[in-house]
Amino acid sequence: MQKHTIFGAGLIGGFLGGVMTSLDLDTTLVCRPSIKQKLANGLLLTDYAENRAVAKVLQLMDNEDLASNKSEKLTCDFLWITVKCTAMESVTREIHPFVGPNTIIFCCQNGLGSDQIIKAQFPNNTVLRVMVPFNVAEPKAGHLHRGSQGTMYVESIPAVAETIKGIIRQINQPIMRVKSTTNMNAILWAKLQLNLGNSVNALADIPVKSMLEQRAYRLVNAALMKELLVVTKALKIDLPKLTAVSAQKIPAILSLPSFIYKRITKKVLAIDPTVRSSMWWDLSQGKKTEIDHLNGAVVRAGEKLGIPCPANTNIIRLVKKMEETPLSVRKDGFSGEALLREVRAAVL
Q1: Which of 48, 59, 95, 273 is buried most, with the most CB atoms less than 10 Å from its CB?
Q2: pLDDT tens-digit profile of 230-263?
Q3: Cα 213–214–219 angle (5° rounding)?
Q4: pLDDT at residue number 72
Q5: Is 21 in the same domain as 170?
Q6: Alpha-carbon gap, residue 60 to 199, rounded angstroms
Q7: What is the average per-residue pLDDT within 82-106?
Q8: What CATH number has the domain bearing residue 214?
Q9: Regarding beta strands 59-61 and 76-81, do their DSSP bridges make them parallel or antiparallel, or are they unpaired?
């Protein structure tokens, strides 16, 4: 049986590894000791559409297990890296025991470019990108809940196309829809457009659903997206449709008055009312965020093209200021109106 290893099994990695384990695939989850303890009695997986899966017994490994392992062969057929972009540099040192000459490495990060770090360290291995569209929350220890919609995309190249097809046949389930793509660059830019709102959610300090119900926050999000669309047009990237609405139409819909917006999106915007963005989680725990790999990617691409991106530039400034502010002295999140004033001041 082919062996899967999930390296960095937090919320996303835990969900992915839990689904694989529930399907009786040989799967090892490499995680922190605290997560290993939480998952010691198995894992319940649920989603917003009331799908369920159970992984009764998980193969778990933490740093202590890895350090004490002297003889067991750890190399795997498929290594799924599910840490955040900010941890990719350190990961290159930690994943060596799992990488054999034929190991396919999957990079499951938000944003653009972090896979290049892995490719530089493992030039003889196949390194592919994965786009994970959904949020995962932890209602309690041993229970992970997928709170939003979206299909996971796995990059495919001719040399391993049949292998990727085989993996997708195995793991594509109602609780986690999976497809392959040969156009991952466009997919990641389309996902990046949606991820720009992570920064807005982090600064708002409220659930995503509550944020989207307020027009001022939506206008901020729309301003960030408009800049990305100008950049991708200049790059001649045709953004695929990842949601029920095309990429080009999303800013206009976000800008609608709330009573119209809610009516239009009621049936197509499936999101759990408790979901918050991963960037909010990072800020709430005093960690460095992925802002440079998300909004920062838009700004850097714009600079190369001579296209100013003031809204994204100012959002980056606000998030970095929040990163530098100790948790003990932070105030409440920005109101929609206050955040909109900040962005409009930068644009004007």
Answers
A1: 95
A2: 999 999 999 998 888 899 999 999 999 999 998 8
A3: 115
A4: 67
A5: yes
A6: 32
A7: 93
A8: 1.10.1040.10
A9: unpaired
Q: Which residues of 3-34 are buried (b: 16+ CB within 10 A; e: fewer)?
A: bbbbbbbbbbbbbbbbbbbbeebebbbbbeee
**What per-residue confidence (pLDDT) applies to 149?**
83
Number of domains in the chain: 2
Question: Tokens 């982090």 map to which residue?
Answer: 202
Pair 175, 281 in one domain = no
Q: Which of 158, 182, 206 is the last residue of a domain?
A: 182
Q: Which CATH number fits the domain that encloses residue 96? A: 3.40.50.720
Are 319 and 239 in a shared domain?
A: yes
Closest C-alpha among 208, 211, 251, 256 to residue 232: 251
**Do residues 8 and 108 make contact, with C-beta atoms less than 8 angstroms apart?**
no
Confidence band of 330 (pLDDT split at 50, 70, 90): confident
